[in-house]
Structure formats: structure tokens, C-alpha cells
Amino acid sequence: MALIRTGTTSRPDVQPSAFHTLRATPDNVHWGYFDASIAPALTIKSGDLIYAEALTHHAGDAPHLMMDDTLHALWKAIPEHDRNPGVHIMTGPIYVAGAQPGDMLEVRYLNMRPRCRYGSNLAANWGYLYKEMGEKERVTIYELDDAANHASALYAYDFKGKYLTPGTITDCPVCDRESALAGVRIPARPHLGTAGVAPAVNGRVSTIPPGRHGGNIDNWRIGAGATMYYPVQVPGALFSIGDPHVSQGDGEVSGTAIESSLNVTLQIVLRKDFSFPAPLLETADSWIVHGFDPQLDQALRNASLDTMLLLEEHVGLSRNDAYSLMSVAGDVGITQVVDATLGAHVRIPRGIFPALEHK
């Protein structure tokens, strides 16, 4: 089994044979689900580069600021009854030639650029403190400063109702708008909340829960410069992206991040030389292993056990050494607490390992 790169080794060069553009047209998106039976929107070879549009279903929170012609076309083309069982607009799927169950997709996220200067945070009915906040839903609209790489709150308003339908137009131009978070600056961290391969399941699979196929992981570190490894579950992998964010904290406690559409450049490399049971994140300085379960304790246990597997099978540590290292150098975190299937992660710094060659 091949060794994943440590902090002292360089990324192998993979020359792309083609560059593709994947627009978020009605024919190229699926709203609210993964499905192994839908036709690919794009077919690529390993190593190819893709420029893809990832659109937020929360653009209706401020349509005059966040909806362009592309989003208006999707809202018109895809009726509300066909936006299920999840909520996210997914661009794809991308068919990777030669990909088979048991392989891994190495997805290198190269660039993520906001499509507009605004984003929305909805304190939603699925938020962690919804009851404690009086069962009220509230929208805060943020403005992005590209030059300073931060976001600041522009205004906020209470949504009179309950956000239940994906793509709901919550905007209320005549309602009371309040100033919010005056003087507070939030670091911009563009990333994808949801991405993954099609699960080996008949019919539609909701985009809301994360799982071993990827899905709604909601880790803000899945941004430009990061690499994700996804276990392939069906022939061709059928990889899709969606749920773009411009900033989020660990936990995503109100129910959403700063939701805003992104243009994403990525490279997909087919890996047949190693396997891993869960989505694995590689950043410039760390490996991050994810675990999922309806119970947070079990989600953390799953992440911890898979971290042990990473250290044993891909670094070559003994089980006892791996357990010790995870305790003294690993950082445990809560990824998100609002998707019913909860997420935890374990971060292992890559720079602590000596330079190692592939086995």
C-alpha cells in the first residue's frame, strides 16, 4: 500500500491532458441529491483540470445581491418538488475514466473565487441553538472585501416563517433591516461544504448527511490549496460539487456558513495505489481524518479509529505508537453539529514525520 505524502515530500507532478469547463446549467446540476444512475455532465481522464461553477441555494436570501442570470435560470428550470431529498445544488456529476469501486479520487482544489461580493448566513430551524434562540430564523447578509480578504455584516432581518424548501426566497425588501456586527471583520475562507462521489445506492441519496462518499462534510479547510481523497463507490466515481461557502467556523452552529456561490478550479487524479475508508483531507501542513455518526461521541470514535489506520498502514507506525502519537500531537475537532449525521475530525501535522519514500 503506497505511502501518502509526509510534510517533507513533494507532490508528484501529474500533467493534465485537457482543461474542461463545467457550467451550472439546468442540464448539469442535480438539486438535493447524489444518484449513481444519472448521466454524467462531463467525462474526464485522470489528471484533467476542470473549471466548475458551484452555486448556493441560499442566493434567495438576498436575490438582488446574490442571484445572477445563471441562478435565475436554475430557479426557473428546477421546480420545488424536484429539489429533494436534500437541499444543495450540485454541479456534475463528473465521470472519471477508469475509476472503479475500491479506487480513490485525489481531488486537488486549486482555486475558489466568489461569484459575487455578498453572502448569507441563515440562523435556521436546524441550527444547534434554535430552541434557545426562541425558535426564530434570522438572515444576516455579509459583504466581501476582496482586497482585504474579509467579510463584514451588511444588514440582518428576521425571516417570518420557517425555511423548509430549498431555494426559498426569504428576502424581505420592505421589512425592518438592522445593522449587524458593526466593525467586526470575518476572515474569508472560501470552501466547498458539500462534494463527493455517488454512493453505491439505488435512487437518490440526500446531500445533507456526510458519509464515506463525502457529501456535506462542512469543513472550512476544504478550500484552495487543499486536497481531498474520496473512496470511489461506483464505476466512473460520478463526482459532484456544491454548497459553496466564503467563511465558516468549526461546528457551523447556527445551521449555515456565509453561503455564497464560487467558481472552482480543480484537478482530479485517479489513484489505484492506495485505499482509505473515509474522506481524507490533506492541507499544506496536516492530514485531517473525518468521522460521521448521528451521535457525536461515535463520530469522534470513528475519526480516531481511521486516524489510527492512517498512521499504521500509510506511515508504518505500530498500533501502540500510533495511539500515543495521536494523543500527544493530534488535534480533535468538531466539524459540524447541524446535519443530523454529525461530523468530527482529527488533525495530524505532517511536518513531524521524517522524509519517507513510497513503499
From TrEMBL:
Pfam families: FmdA_AmdA. One of its GO terms (molecular function) is hydrolase activity, acting on carbon-nitrogen (but not peptide) bonds, in linear amides. InterPro entries: FmdA_AmdA. PANTHER family: FORMAMIDASE C869.04-RELATED (PTHR31891). This is Formamidase.
